[in-house]
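Course assignment 3, question 2. Fill in each field.
Student: A.L.
Task: Predict the tertiary structure for the chain below.
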Amino acid sequence: MLSHAPLWALQACGWLLGWIALLGSGDYRRRFLENAALAGVGRRHWMVAVGASGQLIAELPRLWLGRPVPVFWDGAEHVQAALDSQRGIVFLTPHLGCFEITAQAYAARFGAKPMTVLFRPPRKAWLQQVVMQSRQRPGLATASTTMAGVKQLIKALKSGQCVGLLPDQVPPEGLGVWAPCFGKPAYTMTLSARLALQTGATVLLAWGERLSWGRGYVVHVAPLKQGLSADMTEAAAQINHAMEELILQKPQQYLWGYARYKKPKGMGA
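Answer field:
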């Protein structure tokens, strides 16, 4: 039923949901405000981000199950140039704007070279099936956060295809390094750098800007400014810095409530 609702209506409900979450949870509110303050984001921007965090959830039924939404491109030429080189592409997308739309937009426009997106399956079995069926479509595949999933990503890149990751997602213990993010140490995945260095793939930064009043989205794409270091700690710091620059382009749409600085499960104090 929700998938048939207008995008603006879902996003309006999501705005309300975002504020209910902030006001109803002390832990979430504290983390949200601390993360925003750490990045130097003022009240004018973080207050908008409160509603945007709820919109991220509320718009999913339409994006997963509904008719296509308007999508505009900024930097599509970088994608085409990378595809022409036939080296594969590693897309890096932070928890900024609507990260669901970036992969969908790629599949719709460039799906002749499929994209495989890494994702962490939901814990609920019934939700796993919904998510997997909703995300898999022509030109788009998913890979779980397992060794089998990593092998799937490597195979895709070596065949000249694309993969997509959220590099600001906290990885399991042993699969990351501590690197600064907005000046504070954050456990950061090394997988994105390893994939690029091991396969020679092009690294592109991408994020989906949510337009107001349900007008759709703009997918922004830009190349990484410098090559990745072979040292994983330095490479992680490079990627974190690149994510910081993207986030500060539109801090009103970043998921500030995400537990970016948490310790992986099982890691001691």
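Instructor remarks: Residues 73-250 form one domain. Strands lie at 71-74, 89-92, 115-119, 140-144, 162-165, 176-181, 184-189, 202-210, 217-223.
Grade: pending
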